[in-house]
Specification:
Length: 320
């Protein structure tokens, strides 16, 4: 019984296939009745790797006061460019602050005398850089463990590169950086460091890659989101075909004499995802097939349907 049932199922499937093809023929459709082709042309192609990045300080330094006490004055603001040894603020210890407050109560002369005798301590910049954060104001009382300034020597783009693309990234490689907040800005840079240790999040393994920027515009801020393009390889004035025309086995369907596509083996080079370099197997001016199977719309413009078309009256256009 099972074999008979399988036989009838096979017969039924065959009948449906015949009816389907007959219906296609009635509507003027046939498999691969129209080929979408592209010319083999000359051009340039760049192989790139794209990844997201975050603008960060290369070295982020938290500055804490040398002693617990009160800020007498703050000499710099956020965004200031400072030199190593430059005074950022003047600090009074808790004892000095208490002494000066007592002297002030006795008069201005007493206060000035003790201020000259018992001088404030300077809080200085440990290196050249930019103040990217400030949480100190004059008169504020702080502990020696509190961070009152944060500075950076320079801003970089830190990129998360997928492990599958890491082999295409190398030190000194040229990159282009674009910013989400400034879509029209393109910054040039180069790879400075490639991490040896990986980071795995949600089963995705990435490596941190530091990119140094040739120029750092004034509007660049730590924490900005960026997109980085790594230039892996470039070919100038080479033969190109659409990447979609290359089959899984590396061959293409080249349009031969009479317009009939024929399979041909080709040697390909780099690709940008849209175009692919042809090293050998094709000549400039030839055509290749992009889509090997195409069902065009019916002559009536009504699209694909398994229902038979209504006959049109003589002299009148078919209904739409």
């Amino acid at each position: 019984m099972k074999s008979i049932k399988k036989t009838w199922i096979g017969i039924g499937a065959g009948v449906l296939a015949v009816l389907f093809l007959a219906c296609l023929a009635r509507m003027g459709l046939s498999p691969a009745s129209k080929w979408e082709t592209a010319d083999v042309r000359r051009g340039d192609v760049k192989m790139t790797v794209r990844a997201t990045a975050t603008i960060k300080p290369e070295h982020r330094l938290e500055i804490k006061p040398p002693l617990a006490g009160r800020a007498e004055s703050v000499e710099v603001d956020m965004g200031a460019k400072v030199r190593q040894g430059q005074i950022l603020a003047w600090m009074s210890s808790s004892e000095r602050a208490a002494l000066l407050d007592a002297a002030r109560a006795r008069g201005e002369k007493e206060y000035n005398a003790w201020k000259d005798i018992y001088r404030a301590a300077p809080l200085v910049a440990p290196l050249d850089g930019t103040i990217i954060s400030k949480s100190l104001v004059p008169g504020q009382v702080v502990q020696s463990t509190e961070t009152v300034f944060v500075m950076s020597d320079r801003l970089i783009a830190q990129v998360d590169v997928d492990e599958t693309d890491l082999g295409k990234v190398r030190v000194e490689q040229a990159v282009e950086v674009s910013l989400d907040g400034f879509p029209g800005v393109r910054l040039k840079g180069r790879v400075n460091k490639v991490a040896y240790d990986s980071v795995t999040v949600n089963n995705v393994t990435t490596y941190k890659v530091d990119v140094l920027l040739e120029t750092i515009p004034d509007f660049l801020r730590s924490g900005m989101t960026a997109n980085v393009v790594f230039f892996v390889a470039e070919r100038i004035d080479v033969l190109l075909i659409p990447a979609s025309s290359v089959q899984a086995d590396g061959s293409v369907l080249a349009v031969g004499k009479g317009g009939k596509p024929q399979s041909r083996s080709v040697q390909t080079g780099i690709t940008d995802g849209r175009w692919i370099e042809v090293v050998s197997g094709l000549s400039e001016g030839e055509q290749v097939v992009q889509n090997a199977y195409h069902l065009p719309a019916s002559a009536s413009g009504g699209g694909f349907s398994l229902l038979p078309r209504m006959p049109s009256r003589k002299g009148n256009p078919p209904p739409r």
